[in-house]
Structures are given as C-alpha cells and as structure tokens.
Specification:
It contains eleven helices and 15 strands. With 353 residues, it is an alpha/beta fold. The chain folds into two domains: 289 residues, Purple Acid Phosphatase, chain A, domain 2 (4-Layer Sandwich), CATH 3.60.21; 48 residues, no CATH class. The longest helix is centred in the last third of the chain and has 24 residues.
Length: 353
Amino acid sequence: MVIKESILHNLDKLYKNSPKLTITDNDRFVIFSDLHMGNGGMNDDFAKNAQLFEFVLNNYYLKRNYKLILNGDIEELYKFSLKSVAKRWQNIYETFNKFHQHTGLYKIIGNHDYLLGYVKELPYKFPILDSLALDYNGSDIFIYHGHQTANLLEQYSMMVHYSIKYLFRTVGNNSVPMVNQKKFQTEKIAYEFAKQKNIVSILGHTHRPLFASLSKIESLRFMLENLINMYYKTTNGIRENLEYKIKLLKNELEIATKVNYGINSVGSIYSDEVLVPCLFNSGAVTGKRGITAIEIKNGKIKLIYWFDRNRSQRYLEDYRHVETRHIPDSNYYKAILRKSKLDYLFTRIKLLA
C-alpha cells in the first residue's frame, strides 16, 4: 500500500509538471509509441514495420497537418547504441524533423530510451519530454509512457538494462515482453489515477491497445454479445449471415485470448463494477501484422490500425463492421477500430468516476 501511494504521488507530480497545450476541434494529433528502433539487424523489432510507418507518416499524417506525439521507447537503447540506431534510421529522424519544423512534434521519454537524458549530443534538435497534457474545453488528456506506474527500481534498473543488452542480444527478433501481471499492474494504477483526477490518460509501454479502458479482448466480447442479441431478435432470413459473423468473431476472440494467455475480465483488471472510460493505450509500432495508434481530430479520439494487405486482411472482412480506408498507390490500409467524441467521453468520466 505504501509503494502504491508513493507511485500515485509521483504520477501526480508528473501530471502537474507536464507542459500543457490548449487544443480545439481544429487541432490534429497522432500518437505512436514503442517503436524500439534498433540497428536494422535481426534483433531490431522496428525493422518489419519501418516501411509502413515511414509511409503513413509522410503520405498521410504530414500531408494532413497532424502533430506527432511519440510516447516513449522510440529508440531501443537496452540492446543498441544510439549511434547505431541513428545511423540506420536516418530517414525516420528526417521524417520526425519534418513534423518538428512544419506541424509539431512532441517526443516523450520511455524506459527503453531514458538514457537519452544523459546524452550530450542527440541526433535531433527537438526536445525530450517526460509527459504532456492537452487541455480540451477545460478537461485534460494526460499523455505519458507508463513505466512510471512501477517503483523507481523497476523503472530504471541498470541490471535489467545490461541483462537484456548482453544476455539476450542473440535471441530472435522479439523484445522481451512484459508479463501479463505487470501489464495489469500498469493498467490498474494508471486507471485508478485517471479516475481520481477525472482525466483521460494515454499510455504506451505495455504494447496492448486500450480504448475507453477496454482491451481488444473485452471489446470483442461486447461485440459478440451484441451480435447474439441481434440474432435472438431477428428472423430466419437474416440469421444465416449473423451466424457466419458470430462464428468468425468467436474464432477471433479465442485466438486473442490464447495469445494473451487467458486475460481476465474487466472487473478483475480494474476492480470496478462500473467501468470508467478514462484509460487509453496507443499499442505499439512493433506489431506482428501492423501498427496501432491513437488519433485526436475534430473533437474525436480514435484507435487506429495500419496494415499491409499482403500481410493481413483481417479488417477487410465486414463481420466486425470496421471502417477501412485504402491509401492510394499502396497496399496499405487504415482501419478505425474504435472512436468517440471527446465531450461525450469526458461527460461519461465525470458522471461515472
């Protein structure tokens, strides 16, 4: 309990010391986290999605005047030197610099790149932040990486740094994942803090996308229940199509649950009878088949999935009713997984918290 109170106290200090931007419906932001850029070799988790990431930044977000927020773990400094990262991904840094010069870039530090704070000469000129707050109509969106939900020893352990860098450097192309228990602990504390403050918090760190405090598995469960309810209320002529959709959704839920080792229910994660929609997570750029991100635009917040149809066609099927958009002259697609109006979201938070 003492440790938990200390962490909540430190989160409060982080929140109060955050630089704050006042935003309106005219502002556009995209939030990415957890790139884990390496040296381009077999242990570089960023490499498989690097081309997709660079394309959507230059050909979609920059052209549409989005401001870019990089929410931690951009460089993988547990396993690679900054010099080797900067040399390999010079094109990515050039793209970052375009945002910095033309629309705006906010780079937030994470636990895998916290050593940047000790580097005298960085390969870029934009500042590094600990966190960022966006003021929308008097309500705050608090953006931080998420490792701050652990105690200080876990956040910045040099023993962890060197064990990963030297003991695991020959392991295949996957960064050491957070175990589920640590993911839940991160989410529990971040959720409790956001609920106490009546704010929206946006994290990275766990590589697990969240929207309005719901994970993918929990969202799939709600969707499945809605389809079953529709099936119960409809006539035989429509039921055949619904049965097909229910079967596909059920299979997707089973696969997602297996991959996440049987993630528990909403109540067991957040210990709440009434779920407050205050916690979001942009996921990661290191996904196996694509990239997740969070957009804020026109007074709305959206969970986005970018993918190459040559690697995945999951969201091109209509059983989930996911809105997809093809990017011209490419094999890339944008899927809008979830969306909500910010005013409605903050109203729900204030009434339910």
